[in-house]
Write the structure tokens for this entry.
Amino acid sequence: MKRILKIHDSDNVAVALSDDIGKGDTFDGITLSEDIPQGHKFALKPIGKGEEVIKYGYPIGHATVSIAVGQWVHSHNLVTSLGPDVKYGYHAGTSHRSWKVDGDIPVINGYLRTSGNMGIRNELWIVPTVGCVNGAACAIAERVRKECELVNIDDVRAFTHNYGCSQLGEDHVNTRKALAALAKHPNAGGVLVLGLGCENNGISALRGEMGDFDTSRIRFLNAQDVEDEVSAGFEICKELACVMNGDRRQPLPVSMLKVGLKCGGSDGLSGITANPLVGRFSDRLVEWGGTTVLTEVPEMFGAETILMDRAVDCVVFDRMVNLINGFKDYFRSYGQPIYENPSPGNKTGGITTLEEKSLGCVQKGGSSPVVDVLSYAHAVTKPGLNVIQAPGNDLVASTALALSGCHMVLFTTGRGTPFGTFVPTLKISTNTPLSEHKANWIDFNAGEVVNGESWDSALARLIDKITAVANGAALRHELNGAKDIAIFKSGVTL
């Protein structure tokens, strides 16, 4: 096992890969002057006050004091160099690469919906239009689970939330779009949309937002229109369950698969193990004609030009610029600091500045061209690597990826988390100790690449895992019942 890593030839820091690197240890002629925690950085050469600290081949901030060779580099001597505004330039042709598909291409055994889309789960959902009917939605779901025959139904779930009324402008529109996208997701074989009857996100408005849909699979009920909304909702769901019990998986091309890319609870190994591995998978799925989606816009700050340089054309480039600047304006509109990042957990794990976090984060997108940039809750339509508007918050961002049409989310983590959104959320640990300590949370360990596993071997393992999940294998959060949604809230509540 390697104990330290210099990631790029131009870096002036290296990363501790193990938890036993201490004062007095010598690496390549450099003697450490203090203990270095796993995932943290130390100086490979003298770094003067104000001088840039280089990691991944890019600046991750500047030194606040002079840093000697072998000294720990972290929050006590390194700060961000990011400013509020950046001028961007389009470089035509830098995104293009030729794809060559080698080896076997997986086949997904999924559910072909009448829309022509593929589902990888066959679940029955109750979707409240407004938080006022959350309790009724949960009661309906519980009764269905107890009283209905569910021979080919993976789960019955009510996706509660606090919104749908007393919202204004774009904030209200976002909620309506999100719930419409949720109701139409192909992982659901049947959906009851449950309204109250007086909310501003009423059923008629929501139906209009949904456009075309299968009326035999998506049904509607206003609680105020019936004497007993739980009984009425149960009867509708019983009918849906009868139809869904006849659904069967069939072989479908992997090019139909859409996968969201997310990281959270990151550490100093995130950009070294799990995120680059997910990036390799993203490139492979794109090679196969599939789709991957990247988000967490505030966690692109400092690394956004890497994605901009891969825009397929100037239109996509302009959308990427507007996405980045729009999120900065969003922070300003509320009088909040743009670069209030990383989190305390990130810092404990070895990430010091937002630039460092972002440079690790964008690696999940591999090296593929960016084919489209979309606003929140819009459906992804172009195969390839897409970018969608959403914040860094784990559940909000993962929900946004699913709302765009992703069948599953790959979630890399160095700290661990038990959550899952409404589609399979595959937890990938950046380090082996986490996978062993929280085996009830973690689905896949990417930490083996620092223990000597080759990238090809790790990628083959990950592809096998993703294929199994797409074919119906349950993830930890599904077994634990952790399946929730979080809508991106932005605006005034009346």
About this structure: The longest strand covers residues 188-195.
